[in-house]
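Structure Section — protein described below
Tokens — whole-number codes for backbone shape
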Amino acid sequence: MRLGYVQSAKRGMTDRLLTELALSLRPDVAALVSPDPQDNLLLHLWPADLRWPIRQDLGRGAAACTLDSTALEGAVFRLSQDLARLPCNVPVILNKFGRQEAEGHGLRPLIAQALEVGHPIILGVPTQTEAAFHAFAGPLAEKLDHDIQGLIDFLRG
């Protein structure tokens, strides 16, 4: 089982890196990444090649988070179905282990499913959720550098 993660202090850098990684591995990748670094609430799901919005409209001036957790769960379910049909060595790239995952939701079931079958995984882990990620992943987690070729080599084992 291979579970790698990347971090960046600069906002949006990890999203750009993971999107570039997913694009470089197409079509041999299962991914749920943000295709637009300016809008991390629009996900791109591969291999289905779907753009999946996960933003809820709370109206003008809303101060609350605009993540639509139901839409995120839908994206996870869709990628989970795709993953079940793919060979176990297909790389999985996931945009982040965020607040939803830290609380036990979001991408966690998909990560567990992929690990059980033997898919190599790379995901973004913000510093705010790093402790929860390590509690979830334990010794499986390997921190990786922001280097496309190094990430590809990790995924290919």
In short: Residues 69-84 form the longest helix (16 residues). Residues 28 and 60 are 41 Å apart (CA to CA). The radius of gyration is 15 Å.
